[in-house]
Please model this.
Amino acid sequence: MAKQYDVLFRLLMLGDSGVGKTCMLRRFTENCFDPSHISTIGVDFKMRTLEVDGIKVRVQIWDTAGQERYQTITKQYYRRAQGVIFVYDITSESSFQHIVKWASDVDEYAPDEVRTILVGNKSDEELRRQVPKDQGSKLAETYGMEFFETSASTSSKISEAFTRVTELVLQAHKKDVDNLLGSLDDYLEKAALEEEKGSEGSDCDTIRKACAC
Ligand SMILES: Nc1nc2c(ncn2[C@@H]2O[C@H](COP(=O)(O)OP(=O)(O)OP(=O)(O)O)[C@@H](O)[C@H]2O)c(=O)[nH]1
Model:
C-alpha cells in the first residue's frame, strides 16, 4: 500500500477571539467559509496532507480558543508545536496589539526551534481596515517572521500562509526528516529483500516436499 505521508507536524493557531482562526482553518482544510462566529472551546484540530519538496507532510493544525478563560488549557499545547500562526484581524487594532502578548507566551512555553508566521486576516474588509499593511509587515520583521494578509472569506493567501509555515517547519527539521526517510527506505528495502527470501523459502519447501516423496 502507498505511504499516506512521510512526516507529521503540529501547527498551532493563536490570536484573539474573533480574528478568524477557525474560518482560516476550515477554508484551508475543507475549502468552506461559514460567516457565523461560534467561539472555539479550548482547542480543536484538523488535518491536511501537503507535498513539499517531494515529501508528503501531514499537518495537524490546532485551532485554539482566543478567549482568555481558556488560556490555561491552550498553553498546554504550545510545548508540542513545531509551527505557530499568529493571527490578528486587520479591522481590529486591539487584536494587532495583542500579538505581542501571544508572541511572548510562545517564547515562554513553546520549544526554541518553533517556526512562526504572522497573519493579518479579513483582508477582504478593506473599508473597515484599522491596521495598515505596512504596520503588519514591520511587526513581522521585528520578530523575524514572514507576513501574510489573508481572507478566509475570499480564500486569498490562505493556502500560501499554511504552506509557508509548513515549509519553514520542514526546513527546520530537514536533518531529522532525511534520517527518518533514509531509515524508512532502508526498512522498505530490507522488507523487500525479506519478501524475496521468503518466496525463495517457499520454493525450497516445495522442492524438499517433492524430495520427501
Ligand atoms: N469578512 C471576513 N470575515 C471573517 C473572515 N474570517 C473570519 N471572519 C468572521 O469573523 C468571525 C470570527 O471567526 P472565527 O473563525 O470563529 O474566529 P476565531 O478566531 O476562531 O474565534 P475564537 O474561536 O473565539 O478564538 C466570524 O463571524 C467569521 O465569519 C474573513 O476572512 N473575512
User: Anything to note?
Assistant: The pocket of guanosine-5'-triphosphate is lined by residues 15, 17-23, 35-37, 39-40, 65-67, 121-122, 124-125, 151-153 (CB under 6 Å). Strands lie at 7-14, 43-52, 55-64, 83-89, 115-121, 146-149. The radius of gyration is 23 Å. The chain has one domain: 7-174.
